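User: Quick one: structure for sequence A, then sequence B.

Assistant: Sequence A:
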Amino acid sequence: MKKLFDEVSCRCSEYVTHHYSTSFSKAVTMLAPSIRSHIHNIYGFVRFADEIVDTFHDYDKETLLNEFENEYYKSLDRGISLNPILNSFQQTVKSFNIDNELVSAFLKSMRADLSVQKYEDVEEINEYIYGSADVVGLMCLKVFVGGDQDRYDHLKFSAMKLGSAFQKVNFLRDLKHDVQNLSRSYFPGINMESMTMTQRDQIIEDIEKDFADALIGIQQLPKEAKFGVYVAYIYYRRLLSKIKSMPLEELTNRRIRVSNTQKASLLLGSYFRYQLNLV
């Protein structure tokens, strides 16, 4: 019966992925069936931790995060948790020998969101981005390469750059919410309420460099993962393109989105490029 419980746990993580992020969920469906559930399991874990610090304003967030973290480590030790999200995640961690340092770094960045509202220097924000995004890319990379450490080490840099690019795009996309609702600023030396075009363009240039470094690694991924990751890459490149082309005041006053029609077009174009070996 443990097998049935594990299957149900994985389905819970899949449900979380689908209902919290339709775009990411769509990209996951482009992965080989053998690895999809593990990416759902990773997403479920990071999404729940993120929800605690960003959404549960009427509750004691620190206590909830402490309990979530403690229960995770118990599940890792016991091989089971009655929290299906943690139960499925610990299965993936053990199956692919995901380094505990990655999980610890992620939880450290989530904990920072409880107290840090403004990052004053580059070193601080780089550490935050490493924990909140880069390590998630590295967890996924462990799955993509089937736990092959040599291949993991070879692609590690690009995976981290992709995570950084995604996170920085999210910072710009969610600028209005972060500043007005959470009073957070993730760009050192910049007042986000009075950001200039020059400052925005410098941020975008930095993200484009991250994307260029990431694409080198995407091109070398195993076939089981390559197309799905490429679809996510193209989607975020489109988000960045929209951010780059819009007036600055619009960026600070609404959340940037890609329409379903545009997503379908991006998916179709990505498929043809992939089939023609242009990736």
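Sequence B:
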Amino acid sequence: MKTMKENRQNGIAHKAGALTRGLLIGATLSFGAMAPAHTALAQGGGGMFAPVLNINGMVITQYELDQRMLFLTLLRFPGDIEQEALRGLTQDRLAQWEARRVGLKMTGDAIRAGMDEFAARANLTGEQFLEAIGQGGVSAETFRDFVASGLMWRDLVRAKFGEGVSISEVEIDRAIARGVGAPAAQLLLSEITLRIEGDSTDERALAAKLRGEIRSEEDFAKAAQQYSDSPTAARGGRLDWTPASRIPPDVVAAVIGLQPGKLSAPIATPEAIVLFQLRGIQDDPTAPPPDLEVEYAEYLFPNTPNALAEAEAIHNRVDFCTDLYAENKGTTASRVTLTKVPVSQIPADIAATLSQMDPGEYSADRVRGDMRVFLMLCSRSPANSGPVDRKAIADQLVSAELGQRAELWLEELRSEAIIVTQ
């Protein structure tokens, strides 16, 4: 039987774990995007308060790094925990440096409100949240600093870019086409998918470099052939015309306002960094209801030299996603996962692949560790949707645009900073 402590910690991990992408990766305006990491860590002794990095004269200690790692672990944050913790702390210091430069300070009331808001998203009070993370070894000061730095970065981004971002009614109409009852749109996109294995610093840097260098569809196609890990790489990353309803809202928001030929900001998922180029957009009044729910299956099988041939054999043996359970029979643990969620909740790289598939089709181009992923589309079906909230859509588009600008600014601050490994 689990103890009260275990239940509380599991509860916070379950509730807050579902928030990690929104709060720690994609929600630049809530608690900030992660900065690229300086990957070399301190070696040798020096104790728990030994410096790890010095950023513009501001030190990150081993204790802070350990605490951030514990915090992310409690939230079941994906990826390399050490590198993500260091990335977040690096952003904190860059935000503090910029805040000092412009004279921005966070009030105690604002920080407490931010802590309560973070806890409320896990259906906990601030005191309950502190108690839960405290049982996991995370101090209240660590949580407070995390929230304060995130709020500081949010205010810096709004102050620098907020007045320069406006969303037109046409942009809202286009965004509505992704899934809530207006005539749907079709998008013609190209993609470059940079698979992450451990630390994502190199992939983020390459994505930023490519975004700065690519000037045409030809440039994009050549870069996709050279760098992309997607199965579309052989054809220059080109995707077919795809209903916006089949594409994740964060991707739609990133490309819907672009002129043809322009690139989105890099979009991060737990497994990849993805760049999209908009090649065209057109109305699609004959499309099915755009607010869709997608069911897909992932089956892990050994990544041998004959894995792709084995995937084809698996596909020949199965008619439905549930047939994959028979493929898994005899193994010590289930390697089949069936997921049924709205398009908006599917990671961008997986959703981009699914958007090109009809039910019953599969892809076996992804690798996780020593296993190959057999990805199969089970079904698409209309999801119930409420009335269209144009203001909420406009707010999402503003947040997406600010997020893109913030990511580029953060890279600029990092490149200009003096970062010394201790």
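Residues 292-382 form a domain with the Chitinase A; domain 3 fold (CATH 3.10.50.40). The CA atoms of residues 38 and 390 lie 41 Å apart.

User: Thanks, that's what I needed.
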